[in-house]
Amino acid sequence: MILVIKEGKVIATHTDDQEYVVDHYPDCDVIKVVDNAVEFPRDKEGRPTGLPEDPRLKGVPYVDLKRQGITKQRLADLETALAALLGGGA
């Protein structure tokens, strides 16, 4: 499950296959957690009544999708630079 968090409050949730949401929320934290790691508030009949709390406050493991994207880009840049150094001297 992907959670969008702004100022310590979850403002949106998305399914795991919607990682494009990182670009849609530039001023927010976007994290991925295991589906059963968050609890939605529910009414007497068990229907969700709101959004979950920020799971980071409870120590729930998560992946920061914005940082993950930065790390992937840095790795790609390093691989390109290494390939140029190893194979490119004309």
Could you please describe the fold and organization of this structure?
There is one protein chain. The protein has helices spanning 21-24, 65-87; strands at 2-6, 9-14, 29-32, 63-64. The protein has 90 residues and is an alpha+beta fold. A four-stranded antiparallel beta sheet has the order 2-1-3-4. It is elongated and about 65 Å long. The N and C termini lie far apart (48 Å). The mean pLDDT is 86.
Sum this structure up briefly:
It is built from two helices and four strands. The protein has helices at residues 21-24, 65-87; strands at residues 2-6, 9-14, 29-32, 63-64.
CA-based shape: elongated
Q: Mean pLDDT, nearest integer?
A: 86
The largest β sheet comes out as: 4 strands, antiparallel
Order of helices and strands: EEHEEH
Helix count equals: 2
Please render the helix and strand layout as text.
Elements: E1 2-6, E2 9-14, H1 21-24, E3 29-32, E4 63-64, H2 65-87
Antiparallel strand pairs: 1-2, 1-3, 3-4
Provide tags for this entry.
single chain, 90 residues, alpha+beta, four-stranded antiparallel sheet, 30% helix, 19% strand, elongated
